[in-house]
Fold:
Amino acid sequence: MNATSFDPAKMRSLLTVSHTSGLFSGIFDPTSQRFIGGCIDGSLVAWNYPALDSPTPFGWRHRSYVYALAALPQHREIVSAGLDRRLVWWDPVAATPLREVMTSARPLNLAVSPDEQRLAVVDDDRWLHLYDTLTGKLLASYDGHPMMTAKLKLSSIYSVAFSPDSQLVATGDRTGTVLVREVATGKIIHTLDAKQFYNDYAIDAEGKPNGGEHELGGARLLIFSPDGKTLVVGGMADYEYNSAATDGRMGFIGFELEKGEAIFKTVLPKDKGYLQTAVFHPNGLLLAAGGGGTAGASGVGTLCVLDLAKSDQPTAYPLEATIRAIALSATHDQVILFGMLKTAVAGHVETWELPAPADST
Amino acid sequence: MNPAKSLCNPRIHSMYRRHFMGTLGWGMSAAVANFNSLTGLCSDLRADNVRKDDKRVIILYLGGGASQMETWDPKPGQPTGGPYGAIPTSVPGLHISELLPRMAQRMHHLAVVRSVDNSGISSDHHGTGIHIGRKNEAAVQFPTLAEICTKELVLADTQVPPHVELQVWDTFRFETKHGMSFLGSQYAPLVLTGGKRPPDMDRLPAVSEMDHADREALRDYLSRRFEQSRGANEAESYSRTNGRARGVMACDELLDVDRCDAADLARYGPTPVARHCLLARRLVEAGVGVVKIRDTWWDTHGDNFEGQRVKCANLDHALSHLIDDLVDRGLMSHTLLVVLSEFGRTPDISASLGRNHWPKAWSVVMGGCGIQGGDLWQDEC
Amino acid sequence: MTTRHRPNSLVFLATRSSIRAVVLCWSAILVSLLGSACRGETSTNLVVSDSPSAASGTPDSVLADADATLAPMIDQWISAAWPDTTATPAPAANDAEFVRRLYLDLVGRLPLPAEQKSFLSDQAPLKRRELVDRLLNGEEYPIHFANQLTTHLLGRTALPAPKEWTDWLRQSLTHGKGWHTIVREILSAPPTPKDESGPAEFLVRKLSSNDPLDGVTRDVTRLFFGVDMQCARCHTHPEIPEWEPESYWGMAAFFNRSYLVEIDGRKVVAERARGEAVYTPAKSTDKITAEPRFMTGVVPPPQEAPPTEAEERINARKALYPEAKLDDPLLDNPDEYAVPPTEKPTAPSRPLYSRRAALIDMAIDANNPYFSRAIVNRAWAWLMGQGLVEPLDQLHSANSPTHPELLDALSEDFAAHNYDLRRLVRNIALSDTYQRSSVRLAGGEPPPRDLYLQAQVRPLSEYQMAVATLGAAGLMDGSQARADFEKANTDRIKELVLRFDTGSDQFAPSLALSLYLANNESFAKIIAEGGLVKRLLDNNDNEELIRTAFASVLSRAPDADEVAALRYYLAARSDRREQACQQIVWSLLTSSEFRFNH
Structure:
């Protein structure tokens, strides 16, 4: 009974659970048919689907925040990246670690190619490393992102994604530069400009821009459309007030891959923070989430739906929690959001129903 | 003189209560139990001795509020400790954040105070609290610590400017600009913003070098006649200061970071904070008494871990080179180096990954001038 | 330590057997007690010929002047404090010294060369008094003293101040409005049309600060009553037990109900009928509600208990303003107001019982010694280089004046004569004490300043310096009314005020200023285009040129050495005479002699 479509206007929150540690990453794991989250205390934890009950901690933990998770359904494994410079492969059913690989810098994100041949890991030393998904053997390493931002800070690569045919890999950095490469050769085929998400707007006491040192942002989200024709980049844009908090507004830029040109730029009118995570529904709608907030405040989040054909009309649902990861259930009728509520130590998991449109029932 | 006469004048209030550097007397209460090495310093280093010994001060001010957890006081494994680990340092038992790997190898030159509490004097950027060492008051412009040091340490007739402030880039927006203090403008810093030279350093083309020098000699001659007939100190100090303008102009090269040694420039690299650390070293070598480097935008209310990491990378590089140079050139024995912010950042991390302002317990490091490297002051808990 | 001799003591009578002094002192007091009615009669008794400064241009004239009875009294109290009869005061300033000093002090600018010349050549015996009177009654005295008061009340860099404030202050001084009326208008700050909003500027500024209550309390206490009680905010003063937190907070309680509202885009002072100043003393956690109390301990008539109001009426207001916070003025009982607070006010709220009005009624009063003494002490400092009490805002029991009787007498006279600043300034300016030379006395260390044996060398204020610089450079030639000159040069004055500001009431030179003077293009332009250089170039004779330059900038004639030095300077630059003249003017303008009043 896989849902093939849903009505963005009718989405509603289903279940909400809290967790003793903030959730930085999360997936739906087809192997164990569970939701699995990665926490700031280094642990992995699994919830039953769809009841979202019986949280089960994994038997070993990273020594730092679990920044990213990915499922390897063909191999019946999952892989995690922690800021302790480790990549760890796990048996998701037994909840036990299988192997680990140390990395040279702090891994900030990872992605698995749809054919499950390659694991791409990006880090704060601006490397893209390609590993053999199964063995963890390092196959190739690519640099090429600018080392420093316009304000002479060291840049990092925040986001990575494979194309649906597994032929291309895209990486996005702090400066808003996105590189699209051929997986086989490492050759850069596009350098895309998402500098809208690099915010260096600073104003002086009189409110005039002063070209100051302040900066925030980067390309935090990358995802290819299911047809492989569009690359969507997400982040925070229109940062008008340099409060040193992530209180710009969430934005998308869509690039048409044939020519490497931007075809739409959409900024949500109210929703603050980084667009951090996204998933395509089989019906072609993009479900994305993230969060941020005003200086001194605890943080808020947003779940939104973008139709690439009508990119100027996103549907947005404000959330109390700040979202780090989104995943689609096996039956495509639910999304699950992983994040933090008010404070980073308070994990928050939330499922949303994706009701079918009235005419399709 | 009646002792009560000036007692309640808040201006004087602030001055005589403190010794030089008054045991971190900038309104901070540090853990006193382990303070032996510092109290020794304070009782010995009265201004007169200091003057004789030709001491210098470099203050590296991390404006906006560096996070103690991501710098000198890591708490890995704690729920609020953040993602970064602690690394061992050149001082056995002392660990600092992994974001400062180069500094970790040099901690034997620095003392760390992890229990600074300035909650009584400032908790937002608007207060100039940490600069003046007390709560800001609407009607009185108190001198900054740097200005007090300038007054106490620096001989008035140095050829170089006695007090230079290097604003690394912009002025941090939320920080009130410090006005002229009641000590007077002669102790106020010569401010160089973003590596730019101070204004009015160039002789106007309409005045030849010879005429510029001669008219100055004429001004000096006329002024001296007046001063001799009147015996007024203020008139003399005005005249002497005007007489120093040409001396400062001669220091133009000194104030221009681009004219530093090419090897030094390459070593320090392109970041503003590093270039200004290099400039600060050159200035103290040349006899400038007090240099304050004002770095900005440590104010990470959102995305703290990324924000502090990129700032720390630049700090680690800049500060470690500065310390190497101070040590290699024998400057460490008579140059006090202080690294501080207006406050630290909260242990609590918001869901938007921000740390907010935290004046209650944060860290300052300092070294040089006889401060025992490797000392650690913190509350026992 | 030597015993200080008091004029009314027996010691005094024995050592300085001058009946005249006693007569003078008593007559001055009599004058102030009896008021103007008997002034003429008293003064006729005072004509004496042995004025202590018998050097050239002595103001014997004073003594025939009914309104100048204070001047000789000043001299008597001052000389009475000299340690022994061997103390030798400096001779009177010569005419050139005097005319520069007087113009700077009374009208805030340098005398024009023509004005100097006519004064120097004037043979009239009363010419000093005539000049004092001409300046005090001219159009420039109100301008300069409005500037002085603006600097005093609004801050050193407040000049040029808003037009409404300046106009009101100048008008007030022109018409001899008493200081009590001026302060009353400032503190009452009633709603007025924009044109007449001048006096409200003070409270609007103070209430706009970050910490409005502290700002206004501290400044009102300091500026109008001469007492800076800042440290009593938290703790009792260690030496002055009467200065306790209650004193500071008692003053604050007069202002905690005052606030600003915006009407027609303009900030206006409003006041509430209720509301308390609450404080926590140091080392305490108690919250204490401050009672309004003047710092001397006097309390205003109490406010009646609030009228009881029907519950429905209170709730109706709450319902009307659902957004209002608990202490919003909109929720106050309108019965307690002459003009109640409203959501979009057309006039600021005015309570039936105003704490600010209570302060005005209590404090601006002849029985309040602080009120007169604060401004008298400050005016003295403006003309003499230091206050009778220093620091100027430490007018408390543990900080005695250097000449207590003099301060008392001046203050009493001031209160008895409609708090007339002009009269006060006139008397100080006519005194021998004021008119002494500043040239260093022969031999040894200079005498202590508070003996007033010689005139002080004192820095020009930022504003005096700005106007003097522009004037000396030739931008002021007498063809333009002073007000027009200030208006036409507003931007230049503003820049120079900021440049010369030392950030302090203390004089403090700075390198930034020195570099500005040495190399700044706009400063060079003032010299190049001011007009003086052009006039100098009209002189073919170098000596005449040098004399003109000295008269224009330093208001005096050069001596032979100076002429020789400048001749040499010019001769070496015969190929670039214009630049040479600019450089000479620069040297004179940046010399220490120009920077000071002496």
